[in-house]
Design brief:
TIM Barrel, two-stranded parallel ribbon, globular, hydrolase, glycosidase, beta-glucosidase activity, Glyco_hydro_1, GH_1_N_CS
């Protein structure tokens, strides 16, 4: 018996404040770590400046100016029939330095207005409290979550916004792609740790693994405390974790490849989910930390972690890669973390391996491991969209990508998976987190902006806009038309 999508399935799209809002220093907003990142490219890493330089381009400073276009943008999401809109709150818009006692009222008022617009169109906000948005001051002065005082600053911020929006927001995610902190590049994005070289330049590849895992533990505490305090504010709040699912297959049946996948899957994908959903450090991670002589107080904080578990599990899924012990195999790209090329898959313009069937595999795996409702909160195809001679953006390639992923979502539901929602990433074109580019577009809505920050900011509906509208209207039945 085919069950299909439930009648209350949450169809929508997702954005992040630093990638769409702009207005980086107006109405009392402070600078976030993202505001110090210049643009880059596929083969050009983004540069982090400790001081913002007047002659350099920082994509987040203007982005697509959602701050001044939110009414127009949300109206178009409403026209598509969105049931849910995932967005983040910029911490530095509420507390400019991050450690103030009193919030910035102008920042709070902005999100009041955004949530009121959502309500006008029957759209439920799904709010990420920290989407790589730490106030720069906390990163510079405290080295982010490596300092336990930042836990309290975060909880103060989180309780401030939850109290303010307790009647407007029901769904909350604490930290975006928290598991990136298991890897060196997560120092900056998730943890707010800025490792600098002898010249004072921030270098992403520099790492202090002991500091990183101690800081990640502090992030776990911040998340758990937020959940506990949030339920006091409104017992009907629903909280989720957010994991970047790095989907990996063994390249060969060599048992060494199989074991390597298992180890990487546990470390990168399962560790953070286990802490946030099950409320405890898994045995494999306890042993890993012991072997590395990394002291993390998971025993003394055990009850807090157990009391602050989340209600549902959300994740990003874009692609998959292969893993092998053979160092000579050709590498590929994919959501910051690459792997070995899979000969059975095609790749996007940015080298990401397109693997819809892998999503069914992941959904079943997560359903079996956690047994809580699941939501896909990032998925999509980044492409260099063009306006043709008739003035249209005919993004059939995006429609095809999304069709195949929605198809396997339905198959997973029929497998018994408890999937409750889907928010396609970058529902309106925004700047890329990885490269800072505008050229890498995901949206149903085109925004006239280029990689140098030039353009009219005019919004235009793509072909996929009308396709997704009928998908939502039919509750997923017409995805193949």
């Amino acid at each position: 018996m085919n069950m299909g999508f439930s009648k209350d399935f949450l169809w929508g799209g997702a954005t992040a404040a630093n990638q769409c809002e702009g207005a980086w220093n107006i109405d009392g907003k402070g600078d976030s770590i993202c505001d110090h990142m210049r643009g880059g490219g596929v083969n050009t890493p983004r540069v982090f400046d400790m001081e913002i330089l007047p002659d350099k381009y920082y994509p987040s400073h203007d982005a697509i100016d959602f701050y001044h276009h939110y009414k127009e943008d949300i109206a178009m999401l409403g026209e598509m029939g969105f049931k849910v809109f995932r967005l983040s709150i910029a911490w530095s818009r509420i507390f400019p330095k991050g450690n103030e006692e009193k919030p910035n009222e102008a920042g709070l008022a902005f999100y009041d207005n955004v949530f009121d617009e959502c309500r006008k169109y029957g759209i439920k906000p799904l709010v990420t409290l920290s989407h790589f948005e730490m106030p720069f001051y906390l990163a510079k002065e405290y080295n982010g979550f490596s300092d336990k005082r930042v836990v309290d600053y975060f909880v103060h911020y989180a309780t401030t916004v939850m109290e303010r929006y307790k009647d407007k927001v029901s769904y909350w995610l604490t930290f975006n792609e928290i598991n990136f902190a298991t890897l060196p590049f997560g120092n900056q994005n998730v943890l707010g740790i800025l490792h600098t070289d002898e010249k004072g330049n921030v270098v992403r590849s520099l790492d202090d693994e002991k500091m990183r895992y101690q800081a990640l533990h502090n992030v776990f505490l911040a998340s758990a405390k937020t959940v506990i305090e949030g339920r006091k504010i409104n017992p009907s709040f629903q909280f989720g974790c957010m994991i970047a699912h790095v989907t990996m297959y063994p390249l060969t049946p060599n048992p060494e490849d199989i074991l390597l996948v298992q180890q990487k899957d546990n470390h990168i994908n399962n560790f953070c989910g286990d802490v946030q959903v099950k409320g405890e450090y898994p045995d494999f991670m306890i042993q890993y930390l012991k072997n590395k002589d990394i002291d993390v107080p998971y025993k003394e904080d055990a009850q807090l972690l157990k009391d602050g578990t989340v209600d549902f599990y959300t994740f990003s899924y874009y692609s998959s890669n292969c893993v092998t012990v053979d160092k000579a195999k050709e590498k590929t790209s994919g959501n910051v973390l690459g792997g070995v090329k899979n000969p059975y898959l095609q790749v996007s313009d940015w080298g990401w391996q397109i693997d819809p069937k892998g999503l069914r595999y992941v959904l079943n795996k997560l359903n079996d491991r956690y047994g809580v409702p699941l939501m896909i909160v990032e998925n999509g195809l980044g492409a260099a969209d063009q306006i043709d001679e008739t003035g249209q953006v005919l993004d059939d390639y995006r429609i095809e990508y999304l069709k195949e992923h929605i198809k396997v979502m339905e198959e997973a539901i029929n497998d018994g998976v408890k999937l409750i929602g889907y928010t396609m990433w970058g529902c309106i074109d925004l700047i890329s987190a990885g490269t800072g580019e505008m050229k890498k577009r995901y949206g149903f809505i085109y925004v006239d902006r280029d990689n140098e920050g030039k353009g009219s900011l005019m919004r235009k509906k793509k072909k996929s806009f009308y396709w997704y509208k009928q998908v939502i209207a039919s509750n997923g039945e017409n995805y193949n038309r």
